[in-house]
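Quick illustration for those who missed Monday's session on complexes.
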Amino acid sequence: MSEIRIAILGASGYTGAELIRLLRNHPQARLVALTADRSAGKPIGSVFPQLAPFGLPDLVAIADVDWSGVDFVFCALPHGTTQAVIAGLPSHLKIVDLSADFRLDNLDTYAEWYGHAHQAPGLQTEAVYGLTEIHRDAVQKARLVANPGCFPTSALLPLVPLIEAAQIEVDDIIIDAKTGTSGAGRSLKEGSLYCEVTEGVHAYGVASHRHAPEIEQDLSRSAGRSVLVNFTPHLMPMSRGMASSIYVKLRPGVSAEDLKATLIGRYRDEPFISILSGKDVPQTRHVRGTNRCHINVIADRLPGRAIILSVIDNLVKGASGQAIQNMNAMYGLPETTGLDLVAIFP
Ligand SMILES: NC(=O)C1=CN([C@@H]2O[C@H](COP(=O)(O)OP(=O)(O)OC[C@H]3O[C@@H](n4cnc5c(N)ncnc54)[C@H](OP(=O)(O)O)[C@@H]3O)[C@@H](O)[C@H]2O)C=CC1
Ligand SMILES: CC(=O)N[C@@H](CCC(=O)OP(=O)(O)O)C(=O)O
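Prediction with NDP bound:
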């Protein structure tokens, strides 16, 4: 297939840099426009020296992009800024939006959790939730894909097949999740300072994190009724990586081995998902820098309960890697194109 001419909006951020790193290995991708806000007008190499040697376009403001030379847009802007930007783009463009702006189908739920009315409700009706392994058919036909959040990706990949198989009680799901600090983005925030993050761990967004309704949206779709979850994220002193420990109650007659068999069957042909053997514990270091998700299911000591462990790299399967996987699906390319990566270890 011919080349895909790509613009990255928000190229001077963490997910933007990760898109550029990964797309360097994509044979069809040609980066024709990179945008920034504070850094508009600068060479990308002045923001990210590791990207200086590759002949990339300079950073420009979004208003200065010539859309006639662009086929595809990765939108990696802060949530809340993206609906208006995407609503103003020409209709020939295919788009994967990495922000949360098009993830929630229910406009009232969006307004409740994001504190303002949706600014592009018409576009929301055409947006497809891009958890690729679960919504592949819709992603392949989509023009606008809402790339999932990192916590929802790590939780939904194991939970959706188990709910569809009616193997777990949907009213008793606890998601205890940990993330690296790059999840907060590159802009200056007191909570991301070294002294606030190093040598300690803390929960945040307790009983109020905006990824709860996103997780619940897909779990409710799978269950055919409203599902609520207990979700608590924690900030870890590491730059990237995400681990979700998920505590579930088994339905009568179901064992932890049954859950594992369901996941093995569902993901047998999925290149990015591994169900680990025995009681092997998934570790973030084993997926670092890759688009992979490692999962295991272990019987709890408490009768009738199981513990599901799921790890991803928040910047790759949790953001830029899944975004490229979705682009590949939208163009009918093998989903692994540009994403055939081995973890950086140790
Ligand atoms: N980091 C992660 O692990 C994940 C992030 N996401 C989502 O992806 C999106 C990007 O995240 P991330 O890369 O971490 O964010 P960063 O804060 O690192 O980068 C944001 C980018 O957007 C640009 N920008 C900021 N404000 C504006 C504006 N008003 N108009 C135009 N451009 C603007 C910035 O430019 P400049 O720096 O020049 O000001 C920068 O290029 C967010 O919506 C985030 O929620 C999703 C999953 C995981
Ligand atoms: C450490 C940290 O702050 N992480 C972010 C998650 C970023 C992400 O996945 O998602 P969005 O695209 O929905 O922002 C948070 O908890 O909000």
